[in-house]
Amino acid sequence: MEELIEAVLTAVTLLEWRSIVDILVVGLIVYWLLTLIQGTTAIMVVRGIVTLLIVGTILAYALNLTMLNWLLRNSIPALIVVIPILFQPELRRALEQIGRAGGLLPHSPTLSASAHVVDVIAIAARRLSERRWGALIVLERDTGLGEYVETGVPIDGSLSVELVLNVFFPNSPLHDGAVIVRGERLGAAGCVLPLADVHASPTHYGTRHRAAIGITEVADAIAVVVSEETGRISIANNGHLVSNLDEGKLRKVLGILYRPPGGNQPPWMRGRGSPADPPKADGPKAKV
């Protein structure tokens, strides 16, 4: 233990301004990665790995355990291989955020298309809520959702309140699936989405809500859910769900979050916004 304390004190005395900047940059990167996995099962895996390393290091130095010390030193190369496998979905989300030019910077919304879409979705959600018709509406942004559009029935119709209500009419052929909105058009209905793993959450989520969270975990889409049981309106973004919205609150939130696919970016910067290059998602899928 004394050797560990001496090593730490020696390292502190050797610090210069470049080392401090280096530590701050690495700290910011680690913090950003932790925010990506916050609220997911991956955070529990991180806690487990960190706890094992800390406890093992303390025991190895305190009790002078040669074999354990050797094992900890040689486990680093193995962790470099294991970490990308364990955190593949989270790393993909991080790389997608970097790849979407402007995704990390503030942007001005594109009002011409988004205002109409926000208006239609807000009114349709209110009417669905009043009738207690279950619904799941996904708004595509920069990340293309072509893979999920292909699981449903192509519609490619002009987005309107009446069209959305007809799709989610109880017992209609498409009411159990999700609707995917691409720009100002309703791309497909009856779509199958990936389900989020929310078993560790204290809140009980139905299939629609799990699908809403799931699609926003693998893409930058926004999902609007109307509960069939309570008529409650919820919105999912970046793997997080906010409930108890009315038409006004939903309109305000969508006005802040939503922008049409591509936004203000030129075509060569839109990355995976094309339907021809859909994202790949792991985990269960279900019709919702």
Task: Write a structural description.
The structure is a single chain. With 288 residues, this protein is α+β, with helices and mostly antiparallel strands. The protein folds into 2 domains: 2-99, no CATH class; 111-287, YojJ-like (1 (3-Layer(aba) Sandwich), CATH 3.40.1700.10. Helix content is 49%, strand content 16%. The protein has 10 helices and 8 strands. The protein has helices at residues 2-13, 17-37, 42-62, 66-86, 88-99, 111-131, 146-149, 161-167, 207-218, 247-257; strands at residues 135-139, 153-158, 178-182, 185-194, 222-226, 233-237, 240-245, 285-287. Strands 1, 2, 3, 4, 5, 6, 7 and 8 form an 8-stranded mixed sheet that branches. The model is unreliable at 102-111 and 263-283 (pLDDT under 50).
